[in-house]
Amino acid sequence: GLSQYSSDPRTEWDLSAYSTRDQVLEAMRNLRYKGGNTFTGLALTHVLEQNLKPEAGARLEAEKLVILLTDGKSQDDANLAAQTLKNLGIEIFAIGVKNADEAELKQVASEPLELTVYNVLDFPLLSSLVGRLTRVLCTWIKEKSNKENADIPVNTGPQLSPTDLKISAVTSKSMHLTWSPPLRPPKKYRIVYYPSKGGISKEVVLDGAVSSLQLSNLTSHTEYLVSVFPVYDTVVGDGLRGVTSTLPLSSPRSLRVSELSHNSMRLSWKAAQGATQYLVLCSAAPDGAED
Questions:
Q1: What is the pTM for the complete model shown?
Q2: How far apart are CA 185 and CA 208, in angstroms?
Q3: pLDDT (tens digit, 9 = 90+) per residue, 242-269?
Q4: Domains defined along the chain, listed by start
C-alpha cells in the first residue's frame, strides 16, 4: 500500500489493491509527485486510521511495517503519532532525503536504529539503499513468520523479553554478545545471525540461564545482523536485534624504503598477523600507470 502526503495525506492505493509485482510497478510508474508542506505526524495518523484497517487489506496475523520517506522536517508532532503506531506493535522504518531532520528520523523509527534509519543526500541515491533495506525488511518479516509457523504465540511483555543487547570485543572473526535477561527466565535462547548483504543464516541455542555468547568463525570486514529470542514452553518473547561489523583483517605496518638505485628499491614492513601472502603494487607517481 502507498500513501503520499504534504499538508493533506492521500492514499494512492490500499494493501488490497494489487496482487502482483507487475501491477505494483505499473502503479509506481503512474504515480504523480505531490508537492507541498511536510506534516509527517498527520501522515502517520492517516496510515494508522486509513491504510492499516482490515477493510483496506490489512491482515490481522501479518506483521505491520511502515516505511516513511521524507525530504524535510515535520511541521507537526511526528514523534507523538509515531509512538502511537509503535505502541500498537507497528514497526516504522524512516528514510530521509536532502533536508530531512536526522534527529527526527531517529525519534520516529523503531529500535534498533541501525536497522531502521537511513539518510541520503538526494533522491537518485535512494537506489543505493534498496538492496540492504529489502534484506532487512524481508528478514524482519521472516523471523515473525517462523514464530507463527511454529504455532508459538509471540509475547512482547517486559516480563518475557530480554533487554539491553550489547555487542563488544569485536575482532575480524568474532564478537561477544551480552543482554539483560527478562524478569521470568526463559527455557532457552535462540540467537540468529547472518551477514546483512546476504549469506547463510546461522543459529545458536543456549540454556535460558545464560545471557552471553561468543560468536566465532565470522567473515572479516562484514556487517552482521544479530537477533536474540527467549523461548518458553508455550511462548516466544520479543527478540532483541543489533547490527555490528567485524573488523578488517590486520594490515602490514611501518613501510620502509631502502637501497634505492636508478631502477630498484627495497621495501620492508612489519608483518600483518595471520597473513600468508602479500600483494605489492607499484605505480609511477602521481598518476602513472600501475606496474
A1: 0.56
A2: 6
A3: 888 999 988 899 999 999 999 899 999 9
A4: 2-148 (3.40.50.410), 163-246 (2.60.40.10)
